[in-house]
Amino acid sequence: ERYMHAVSVDDFDTQDVLIHDDYLLLYPQSGERIRGRENRRALVEGYPGRQEGRLRPTIDHITGTDDEWITKASWPAWSVVHLVGSADEFSVTERFAYPGGDTWHVVALITVRDGKIWRETDYFAAGRAPWSGGNLRHRREPQDG
């Protein structure tokens, strides 16, 4: 909750406190590795859409038990859809609405060590139209959001 609040208000100093000294962020789809707190901060500060102030989560509230949370975003640019985990392993699904109108889905796998975010692996997928072929087209239901 403290970390998400820090992200939502661009409190980079608090984010840095909650990031492990040996932090490593992996983007397997592009082969990128971002190592260390300073490099992570530079990535976040320079992320596309952030300069315009339009790509930032605004968390209204977080609800859940000790090992499962749902956040309700009060602005749709970046929504944490689901976060689940316990002890030191968490997975987060998120939805990003970029300034150009594209919506991307993200799955983040997070490992905590010494009470700080130590490892993070993020997977990205562009939104797409429903598949129109085969015999499943009459069996599926639309999802909200």
Task: Estimate the helix proportion, in percent.
Answer: 10-25%
What is the rounded Rg? 16 Å
Total count of strands: 8
Contiguous uncertain segments of 5+ residues: 58-69
Distance between the termini: 23 Å
Q: Which terms would index this structure?
A:
eight-stranded mixed beta sheet; alpha+beta; 145 residues; globular; 8 strands; 15% helix
Characterise this structure.
- The structure is a single chain.
- This protein has 145 residues and is an alpha+beta fold.
- Helix content is 15%, strand content 48%.
- It has an 8-stranded mixed β-sheet with strand order 2-1-8-7-6-5-4-3.
- The chain is globular and about 50 Å long.
- About 8% of the residues have low confidence.
Write the layout of secondary structure elements.
Elements lengths: L1 H7 L3 H6 L1 E9 L4 E4 L1 H9 L12 E8 L2 E8 L2 E9 L2 E9 L5 E11 L2 E11 L19
Parallel strand pairs: 1-8
Antiparallel strand pairs: 1-2, 3-4, 4-5, 5-6, 6-7, 7-8
Q: Can I get a quick summary?
A:
With 145 residues, this protein is of the alpha+beta class.
